[in-house]
Write a structure and sequence with these properties.
Elements (H helix, E strand, L loop, with lengths): L1 H7 L3 H9 L7 E3 L2 E3 L2 H15 L4 H13 L3 H5 L12 E3 L1 H8 L5 H10 L2 E4 L2 E4 L2 H12 L4 H29 L5 H24 L13
Antiparallel strand pairs: 1-2, 3-5, 4-5
Helix pairs in contact: 4-7, 7-9
């Protein structure tokens, strides 16, 4: 513990305090010897970085709990299944994620992102499944849209996207079963992007959109 504290630039008392608060996982024990490793050091540096960014210890503990309950990157990305994708995953430290979204990185938003599969864990790193989604969502937050609203909109968009994917998959399997899907994917995406662009043109020329969700039961 003394070596860990010295390397992290904090006191042994602080390390013990973080242990008691559940911010630091217990060491690996061999008899009476407690071994701390790079994982513990990375956690201490993350705590320090998040404290500098204005997060409280309680908030950091809640974030850590959310991270630890999230799925790992292999489960989210389906590594080893050979599925084609046009998205580029991005590896982030917890403090880098906080820099993208500032005070919008709350335990609630983090849990929602993990549930949607936008974020996964890989040891001490976070993996965002899509560079494009990361850039767009952080830009929306910078424009003043709350991250919670961005995530809720994304949840609803996914339902429509799944329906569109089913429609195109059925069409392709019916009329072009032997076609190269790597060539057909961008064609299908082009149709959706053009229709969405025209729909936005029509919608933005009219009154502000109304919430079309059915009333709660």
């Amino acid at each position: 513990m003394e070596e860990l504290a010295r390397t992290a630039g904090i006191t042994v008392r602080t390390v013990r305090f973080y242990r008691e608060r559940g911010l630091l996982p217990p060491p690996r024990r061999e008899g009476r010897i407690a071994w701390y490793d790079d994982h513990h050091l990375a956690r201490l540096r993350t705590i320090a970085a998040l404290l500098e960014r204005g997060h409280t210890l309680t908030g950091i503990a809640d974030l850590a709990t959310a991270f630890e309950s999230g799925r790992d990157v292999g489960e989210v990305l389906g590594l080893g299944l050979g599925e084609p994708t046009e998205e580029t995953p991005v590896r982030l430290s917890p403090e880098e994620l906080a820099d993208y979204f500032e005070d919008e990185v709350t335990p609630e938003n983090l849990a929602t992102a993990l549930e949607l599969g936008y974020l996964a864990t890989d040891g001490d790193e976070i993996v965002h499944i899509s560079r494009r989604l990361l850039d767009v969502s952080s830009s929306l937050v910078r424009e003043g849209v709350p991250l919670a609203a961005v995530l809720e909109t994304a949840r609803r968009v996914r339902a429509h996207a799944d329906a569109l994917a089913d429609l195109f998959a059925t069409t392709l399997h019916t009329h072009a079963p032997a076609a190269d899907t790597t060539k057909l994917r961008p064609l299908a995406r082009g149709v959706v992007e053009a229709e969405l662009s025209m729909a936005l043109d029509r919608r933005l020329r009219t009154e502000p959109p109304q919430d079309t969700r059915p009333p709660a039961a």
